[in-house]
Amino acid sequence: MINKLTELLKFKIPYTSAVIVAAGSSERMGFNKITASLNGIPVIAWTVKRFQDSANIREIVIVTRQESIAEVADIVKEYNLTKVSKVICGGKTRTESSFYGVFEANEKAKLIAIHDGARPLVTTELIDSVLLSAAKNVAACPGVKPTDTVKSVSDRGYVAKTIDRDKTILVQTPQVFDSDLIKGALTKAIEEQLTITDDCSAAEQFGARILVENGDPYNIKLTTPLDFYLAEKIMTDRGDAF
């Protein structure tokens, strides 16, 4: 990380917009996890604050559900998240929400970082590291090696084969792209109704080569109530303060 910080001091990151995608249904959680309290602060406020604290992020666009726009906008104001330029309505799918977000980014943006609203533990150091890699390589994402054995399974639930763990990663966000690349990739994904699971998948369909940066095992996505427990423990141990 020290070498990355040294590179950041020497390498000028172009104008970068962050798109925080927080338009999911939270079905597995049972409540709106984006506005839920995490150590006394709304999850979305923690997430946005990480990007606010990066000197390399120039603006932030939040994409959320229609019924959450007013509440999220109030949170932005209450917690003085001054880099947020817009809070907009997302789509029916993650792809649509990312699409709406990137096209609402400032036209000056040369890079766009897309991040899960439910990943509030991302560090500014990780954000800056992925930004640097994308600035030098067009697209980049963080990833961590799986610690469990990875297997593919058949439609009937039987083990089909064991996958070489050394050739797999668990991809996280932020995923950072050249602005024109991700706009074109998401447009193609929607026009062709491609099935994709993250924004890198759209860029891959567009033929992009995406550099994988070392991720952070603590950069977890809040998906179940257990994740909230783990996140609060991590934040307490790290001494995170707003």
Bulk shape: globular
Mean of all residue-level pLDDT scores = 93
The CATH architecture is Alpha-Beta Complex
Q: What order do the helices and strands follow?
A: HEEEHEHEHEHEEEEEHHEH
Query: In CATH terms, what is the fold-level topology?
Result: Spore Coat Polysaccharide Biosynthesis Protein SpsA, Chain A
List low-confidence stretches.
none
| Terminal Cα span | 23 Å
Question: What does this entry look like structurally?
Answer:
It is globular and about 50 Å long. α6 packs across α7. The protein has one domain (2-223): Spore Coat Polysaccharide Biosynthesis Protein SpsA, Chain A (Alpha-Beta Complex). 40% of the residues are buried. The chain is 36% helix and 22% strand. It starts with a helix and ends with a helix. Strands 1, 4, 5, 6, 7, 10, 11 and 12 form an 8-stranded mixed beta sheet that branches. A two-stranded antiparallel ribbon has the order 2-3. It has a two-stranded antiparallel ribbon with strand order 8-9. The chain has helices spanning 2-10, 43-52, 69-78, 94-103, 124-137, 179-191, 199-205, 225-238, and strands at 16-22, 37-38, 41-42, 59-64, 84-89, 111-116, 139-144, 150-153, 159-163, 170-171, 175-178, 211-214. The protein contains 8 helices and 12 strands. The chain has 242 residues and is an alpha/beta fold.
